[in-house]
Amino acid sequence: MSTIQKGDFFLKTGRKCDKLSFIKSGYLRIYSITEDKEVTQWISTQGYFVTDLSSLLFGNPVCWTIQALTDSVLYIINREDYNKIGNLVPQWHELEKLFIGKCFSILEDRIFSHLSMTAEERYEYFFKNNRDLFNQVPLQYIASMLGMTPETFSRIRKKQLL
């Protein structure tokens, strides 16, 4: 078990990822910096795994920076132990397949929502399913994750509160 303080980095872009973590408590933001802005890809919460999967599995440079939004407690497994776990846990390969399948399913849902929903629909859906995040993380990160400017997000939020 490891503790990461608010503002500290779990991973930084361009490095190699050698760990997978399960979040016991706290919030971590996964984001990238483009030429003119930060783009939030995801906000990971208690009960979820966090890593750069492409880097962990294939050794690619990390694409995303992962930073703690709150003090967080993580269970961490390094790549070496991750690669050995299949020899220790007979069902590991099936569990790993389910884990990667869940990641893929979440990604598909996010792509579909961005392609098929209006900004208002994305806001409503996300709010309905992640209400706690609205009180725990800066709203500009949620706006970015939903693919909208803070101004659009604020306008939609104001309309929803009326």
TrEMBL record:
Coiled coil: none annotated. InterPro entries: cNMP-bd_dom, cNMP-bd_dom_sf, RmlC-like_jellyroll. Gene3D superfamilies: Jelly Rolls. It comes from the Bacteria. It comes from Ancylomarina subtilis. Residues 1-85 form the Cyclic nucleotide-binding domain. This is CRP-like cAMP-binding protein.
